[in-house]
Design brief:
- Strand 6 and strand 7 form a beta hairpin.
- The chain has two domains: about 55 residues, no CATH class; about 140 residues, Sandwich (Jelly Rolls), CATH 2.60.120.
- A five-stranded antiparallel beta sheet has the order 1-2-3-4-5, with no helix packed on it. Strands 10-17-12-15-14 form a five-stranded antiparallel beta sheet, with no helix packed on it.
- It is elongated, with a radius of gyration of 38 Å.
- It contains one helix and 17 strands.
- Helices cover about 0% and strands about 35% of the residues.
- By secondary structure, the protein is mainly beta.
């Protein structure tokens, strides 16, 4: 039996008003006499050992040596023991979905990914090459391997110019301007600042009549075709009537684990 006594008509602990009255927590001894502790409003404790017998004092947590805890000299510490590792029916440790980061579960393969492998890399595939008026860069291999997304960054000091992608399985011999988003066909802007190149995303499927697709109307649409395929190559034509163009091309690669 446990008795909790609060003076009648007063606010108990847990209400918004302050409790200024003693609280008795205790039980009965073998002689059915109430014994227990009184928690006073000033934080002190009165121990009621038997009827008419009281000992005043305070609870002070101490360590094994009797020294007071939670002081500057003895701040105390908490150490957890045991394990939260889940085991299968054969007693082998296994990872739970809750044990890994939010990106650690692949709902498609229904498997756990224990490491986030997302990263990016910037390569130069053409460095200040000259293109005569009406001529082209030739085929510049994009070097695609296992990337999940690729962007080209073009620096060219003459305009207009056109960029095409070669090497699609459905049109291996054809250069398609629709292999980029945004596409750069007879593009009338020169880009000479290293910080402000002309950027386009390489599409894994080029829109054409043969594929039954239309050009993406937005970047959100283009994202559906963003995964590139190995073997794609970039081809840029200098359409300026009289001037030689200087061309640099960088490839920004993304792997999204």
């Amino acid at each position: 039996m446990v008795l909790i006594s609060i003076a009648e008509g007063k606010n108990p602990v847990g209400t918004t008003a302050a409790n200024t009255n003693p609280i008795t927590i205790g039980g009965v001894d073998g002689d059915n006499k109430i014994v227990g502790l009184v928690l006073n409003s000033d934080g002190s404790i009165t121990a009621k050992l038997a009827a008419g017998t009281e000992i005043a004092g305070k609870f002070i947590p101490v360590d094994a040596d009797g020294d007071e805890k939670f002081t500057a000299a003895n701040p105390a510490s908490v150490q957890l023991t045991g394990s939260i590792v889940t085991q299968d029916d054969e007693g082998n440790d296994v990872l739970r979905i809750a044990d890994v980061a939010p990106w650690g579960y692949d709902p498609v393969t229904q498997s756990i990914i224990t490491k986030n492998n997302a990263f990016s890399k910037l390569d130069i595939i053409a460095n200040a090459i000259s293109i005569l008026p009406g001529n082209n860069s030739g085929l510049l291999d994009l070097g695609i391997t296992t990337e999940t997304e690729i962007w080209i960054e073009v620096l060219i000091d003459k305009q207009p110019w056109t960029a095409r992608i070669y090497g699609y399985p459905h049109a291996p011999e054809n250069g398609l301007t629709t292999g980029l988003y945004p596409k750069r066909s007879s593009y009338t802007t020169a880009h000479t600042s290293v910080e402000l190149p002309c950027r386009s995303m390489v599409l894994g499927i080029a829109a054409s009549v043969s594929t039954g697709l239309i050009d993406p109307a937005s970047l959100a649409d283009a994202q559906y075709f963003k995964t590139p395929v190995p073997g794609l190559k970039l081809h840029i034509t200098n359409l300026h009537a009289t001037d030689t163009a200087t061309l640099t091309v960088r490839v920004l690669r993304f792997w999204k684990g």
